[in-house]
Amino acid sequence: MNPIFSPLTLGRVRLQNRIVMAPMTRARANADGTPGSLAAEYYGQRASVGLIVTEGTQPSDDGQGFPATPGIYTEAHIAGWRKVTSAIHAHGAKVFFQLMHAGRMSHPDNTPHHRQGVAPSAIAPGEQIFTLAGMRDIPVPRALAIEEIPGTIDAYHHAARCAIEAGADGVEIHGVAYLIHQFLALSANRRTDRYGGSMENRARFVIEVAQAVVAEIGADRTGIRLSPGFTGMGLSHGDEGPDLYRYLVTELNKLGLAYLHIVHYGDESLLSDLRERWDQALILNRPERPRDEIGNDIASGLAELESYGQMTLANPDFVHRLLTNAHLSAADRTTYFGNSPEGYAVGYTDYGSLTDVSPYPSSLDKS
């Protein structure tokens, strides 16, 4: 049998298979940041995978970047998410909440307090962002004062505790594109204090966030997502990017986290170096991975798990379709986010499971 279907112990939980539903922003939360009315159904439909990593959940008012994204820092958030985690567990999967602080990728119209975003430095990304009033230029963020950084870190570990109270099996620290990545990137971080300048200083923030979360809920319930090859949203590491991630992964490895989740964009040599520096489980996401390569990274020993986004979005019964060599539906990009005039269910909970299975060429071994 393809090794992706085999069980695995990840941290303190046992997974029914090695397929991970990748985090995907769906923008269908209520105005106060609690999960929307269909969230439990949406996640429960897809809970035949081994692990679900939720959409990015902001750890504070400052952490919100986009409209209708969920939070995990109030009692109302905890109560709302309990329905979701119960639905996931009822269908056999485990769930980690992704903690996502948007940093400068924000707009005052999208936050509860209507303030500008915060970031390592007062440098705008040079992009637009969606608001309920339409697309807007992202304003210059406010640079975090050094005395504010401990409070920002506190928000992460408070959110981690709230996630566990809501029934999560752990949390994933989001280190791609948003606040953590902004501290790492030379193009977004021009600080001259202990959080800027050298790559060791720029990595300090994410390491301290990880340490705080570990202290709150345990290393075996903490994962982190990184993407060394990501250069969108105005982010650049300069020539030292590979060395920065070698250093960062080496330091994070000392914490004994449950997993490292890498979104990979093609530098196989760097990926191999990071694998050698990481002793725990590695989840690998290759955007646009061909179907006939599903399971290859597990079989080769490069990763312990593989994550999939659009495929799990459009195919609630993704695991069944792989096992039966069935057709995979395509996701409708126009309904990714919750502003469809037809209603929130469209492109969310209305993707069907199979009744008539049609053959689909695949190299998956179903023996």
Automatic annotation (TrEMBL):
Superkingdom of source: Bacteria
GO molecular function: FMN binding; oxidoreductase activity, acting on the CH-CH group of donors, NAD or NADP as acceptor
Membrane-crossing residue ranges in chain numbering: none
Required cofactor names: FMN
GO CC terms in record: cytosol
Family: Belongs to the NADH:flavin oxidoreductase/NADH oxidase family.
Designated name of the protein: Alkene reductase
